[in-house]
Amino acid sequence: MPKESIQQFHEEFLKSEELKQKVRTITTYREMIKLGENYGYYFTEEDIAEANATYQDDQKVSLNNISINSDENSNQVYHYDFKCSDIANFDKIALEFEKLKIKPSTVDMNEFEKYFQNDDLNFTSISPSSLEFKSYYDDIIKSDMRKKALEPFPEYTKRSFHLINLDLHVEHQLYEDYFLSKFRIIQFLENLFDTEVKFSGSLWYPPNSYRLWHTNETQPGWRMYWIDFDAFESDKPEKSFFRYMNPQTKELVTLDEEPKIVRFFKVENNSDKLFWHCIANPTQFNRWSFGFLIPDNWMQKLLTRSEDNSKKVGNEWAYKN
Ligand SMILES: [Fe+2]
To answer: Taking the CA of residue 320 as centre, how many other CA atoms within 13 Å lie in the half-sphere pointing to its CB?
Structure first.
């Protein structure tokens, strides 16, 4: 019985730190159902929603169950980009990230390409603070809402999301290994930051893909993204980029990308200073990005590890200057 099954899964979740850590590794209900199956429990998305409605907040088997307090600095720096090689010990986890760069066989690329719209890609150049922004943005939202009613259509049929959410593709032969690599990465990052860390997105940006302007305001706080490509040519005019509007100055900031970078940025939920951002990969190469909810003191943790390391040679989690 699915109802008993979800209850038993919930009981196991409350008792097992390992299962809690696995839940922090996933981002979609499809992954939750798959995880349940691996533990011998069979339930549906509706069963999860129905069961969660009866649990206290801190007991929910939720996909967003860690809360991160956001500080209120007046002169906030909103992003930091590093090369992976500049963060010590990230080389130890690089192989696991490499294994996440998959192209699931369940994605129909011909179908995907049909949904490309050049005007939508160009919308990434329009500032959210400009007068022309709102009507185009509203159009996209309306169109996506109509698509939502038709779910489970593939995620890329939505105009705002012309890319692949890898965590929605669980029925292919690479998924089990992919999940285990994600799990090992969560274990590594929780050791590094000395607190709970949660995956926030596992995304494949094929050539000519984009994620249009959005704010992620329902999950404020710092994100860390590991970003990589399958190939790269620095002399091409088309560049893959992350663009955001500085919430305080309203200035547009465009971060051109290259392989193997780690990006930190801060999402706001104050309606006056939302963190509007968008991503585009107009190149002929594939881009992957894997994101995490991380604590506000992430930089201090990296630096502390560095100090520990200078005192004790061989410390596993050092930060290289
Ligand atoms: Fe985002």
So the answer is: 12
- CA 6 – ligand 1 centroid, Å: 30
Average pLDDT score over residue span 23-42:
94
CB contact burial 81-95 (16+ within 10 A = b; e otherwise): bbebeebbbbeebee
Using a 10 angstrom Cβ sphere, with 0-12 exposed, 13-18 middle and 19 or more buried, the burial of residue 257 is buried
Q: Which of 171, 37, 57, 30 is nearest to 6 (CA)?
A: 37
Distance 21 CA to ligand 1 centre (A): 23
Q: How many angstroms does the Cα of residue 41 sit away from the middle of ligand 1?
A: 32
pLDDT of residue 47 exceeding 70, the answer is yes
Supply 232's token pair: 């790269």
- Report, as an integer, the average pLDDT of 6-16: 91
Environment class of 116 (CB within 10 Å of its CB; exposed 0-12, middle 13-18, buried 19+): middle
Distance from residue 275's CA to the centre of ligand 1 (Å): 9
Distance 12 CA to ligand 1 centre (A): 32
Alpha carbon of 277 to ligand 1 centroid (Å): 6
In this structure, how many other beta carbons lie within 10 angstroms of the beta carbon of residue 67?
A: 13
**CATH domain 79-106+164-311 topology:** Jelly Rolls (2.60.120)
Q: Could you tell me the residue ranges of all domains in the chain?
A: 2-59, 79-106+164-311
Give the three-state DSSP class for 186: helix
Residue 237, φ and ψ in degrees, nearest 5 = -70, -30
215 Cα–ligand 1 center, Å:
6
Residue 195 alpha carbon to ligand 1 centre in Å: 22
Task: State yes or no: pLDDT of 70 exceeds 70.
Answer: no
In whole angstroms, give the CA distance from residue 117 to residue 238: 17
